[in-house]
Amino acid sequence: MQSTAREYASARRDQHGFTLIELMVGLVLGMLTVLVITQVLSLAEGKKRAITMGGDAQVNGSLSMFALQRDIQQAGYGAAASPDALGCVVARKFDTSGSSATFTLAPVVITDGASGAPDTITILQARTTNFSTPILLTGAHLQTDDHFTVNSALNAAVGNLMIAVPKTQSSTIGCSLFSVTSDTSAATKTLGVTNVPHVVGTTALAKWNQNSILPSVGYEAGSYLLNMGTMVLRTYSVDQLSLKTDDFSPTSDATTASVLYPQIVNLQAFYGKDTNGDGIVDTYDNTTPTTSAGWQQVLSIRLALVSRSNQYEKDLVTTANPQWDEGATATFGGTTPTTCNGSSKCISLKVDQLTDWQHYRYKVYDTIVPLRNVIWNS
Q: Which tens digits make up the pLDDT trace of 297-307?
């Protein structure tokens, strides 16, 4: 019995648990391990979000630049077929109860945003089933006439929008928009080889035929018509942190607004001008020409846009407006670039007007788009 009691007491002494100090040390080590793992996961997730959001900004910026570049490349088709017409103010009016309005006969018109605000870019182009060529007037057209007498109505079709261009432009004799019609009630109202009617009617397209917008002296022989087909008159702008378009509607006097891509926060554009006639761009500026000769100097459009990531960053990740690197040799008018990246010239692209702008990342996209329809016609 005494031996059994001693064995039991010895066993109890050997079966003791953790002390309080050991438990506290283990708890601290566990908390440190959890803290390190949490920080690693948080850093990895932050990097993942930054990369993902940077990818979104790159996609939005690339697609926005592609849309602009594609439209500018086609700008001026039909409208620039006769270079001396460039810059003509085109009058238009839809229906007798509508209001008259105007637009400029030019491939691309840049409206400069004040104090670094985004610019707007308006693009004009013809869209026809066949090719578009000027149609010469062989007879005078009075303001009250409902048809044009021409040398050849080649590729003219019912419903085509056309622009009448005077032989000699002035402050009182400008361009006019009308729509081609045809019926068999009279020879002058029937579209033919040498006859282009524009009779006002109740159909949507025929409502563009408002003689009140034509010059009071009419159009003399030697004037001509530009076939615009289903005319494209599209304005690109930045609104509510998105690139959007406003499109002219051939069947009404309204415009159709469309949001293209989000997180586009600035758009800047310059005319590339050949000032000495050698076919090479000499300078870039945002001064819109006012004469045909001035428009014929515009050979390209240089533009940049700024896209923003979707991810709000807790830290300040942007400390200054992004810079548009223009290279070392380009000449600019109307703005003063700063020296950057060695000998390059940079233009600051304003984003600091945005709420919490320093908590987002930005990317600049830029390109130069030749106005090939102007260059080919020159």
A: 999 999 999 99
